[in-house]
Design brief:
With about 130 residues, the protein is an alpha/beta fold. About 40% of the residues lie in helices and about 10% in strands.
Length: about 130
C-alpha cells in the first residue's frame, strides 16, 4: 500500500453479507471519519457499505469497491455509489480448478507437488 500512499486503518470480516458489511463499514467510518475508501471482498458487503457511507454523510467522499460483478451492483456503478467491482469470472475459476485437479489426479500428486500456479483472469468493472 506504500506504493500508492494508502494507509490501511482496519481489516474486518463482513461475513459475506450485506447487513454485516453495513455494520462493519459504519464502525470503520465512525472510528475514521475521513476514511477515503472501503474495499469489500464481495458486492453484497459493498452494497451494505454504500448504505453506511450514505448514513455517515460521506457519499462522494468515501469510495466503495466490491468483488464479483453481480447484477445488483450495476445500478450503483452507473450512479456512482460504487466506484468499481472486480469480475473474477467464477465459472472459469471452476474450470481451472477441475483441470488442475485432473492433472494432479493423473500424476498421482497434489497440486502443491505439481508446483503449478494457476492464475485466473480478473477484470476491473467501472461505469465506463
Amino acid at each position: 500500500m506504500n506504493a500508492i500512499g494508502a494507509k490501511v486503518v482496519g481489516v474486518q470480516s463482513g461475513q459475506w453479507e450485506m447487513e454485516r458489511g453495513n455494520s462493519v463499514a459504519a464502525a470503520l467510518l465512525n472510528t475514521n471519519p475521513d476514511l477515503r475508501a472501503l474495499l469489500c471482498d464481495n458486492d453484497s458487503m459493498a452494497m451494505g457499505a454504500v448504505s453506511a457511507v450514505r448514513a455517515a454523510g460521506r457519499a462522494g467522499k468515501t469510495l466503495v469497491i466490491g468483488y464479483d460483478n453481480i447484477s445488483a451492483i450495476k445500478p450503483m456503478l452507473q450512479d456512482g455509489r460504487i466506484l468499481a467491482t472486480v469480475d473474477q469470472h467464477g465459472a472459469e475459476q471452476a474450470i481451472f480448478g477441475i483441470e488442475i485437479g485432473l492433472k494432479a489426479f493423473k500424476a498421482h500428486k497434489t497440486q502443491a507437488q505439481l508446483g503449478d500456479a494457476v492464475e485466473t483472469p480478473v477484470e476491473l468493472v467501472t461505469a465506463r
